Amino acid sequence: MSEEKARQAIVNYIEAFNAQDLPAMKDSFNFPFAWLINHTVRAVQKASDFQSPTKRLIEEEGWHHTVLDLAEIGRASC
């Protein structure tokens, strides 16, 4: 994957995240994957296991959108 494609994948996810578009968020990932949330590694085995974090953010933190200021690609390969 080129750096530009990697950067665009991040932008696509943030746009889906802000729109609370669950299908588009799922399309942004390759399953299985893992992410780090509050110092805990959480594995997501398949798309049907994915839960959007936006509901909790809205209810608990009053979140309304995320802004991506910078996306530095550390490593991109095919």
Plain-language structure description:
This protein is of the alpha+beta class and 78 residues long. It has three helices and two strands, in the order ααββα. The protein has helices spanning 3-19, 22-27, 54-61, and strands at residues 33-37, 40-44. Strands 1-2 form a two-stranded antiparallel sheet. A hairpin with a 2-residue loop joins strand 1 (33-37) and strand 2 (40-44). The chain starts with a helix and ends in a 17-residue tail after the last helix. The relative contact order is 0.20.
Largest sheet: 2 strands, antiparallel
> Cα distance, first to last residue?
4 Å
Q: What value does the Rg take, in angstroms?
A: 13 Å
Average the pLDDT over all residues and give the rounded result: 87
Mass-distribution shape: globular
Given the helix and strand composition, which structural class is it? alpha+beta
Layout of SSEs?
Blueprint: H1 3-19, H2 22-27, E1 33-37, E2 40-44, H3 54-61
Antiparallel strand pairs: 1-2
Quick take:
The protein has 78 residues and is α+β, with helices and mostly antiparallel strands. It contains three helices and two strands; from the N terminus they run ααββα. It is 40% helix and 13% strand.
Notable features of this structure?
78 residues; alpha+beta; two-stranded antiparallel sheet; 3 helices; 40% helix
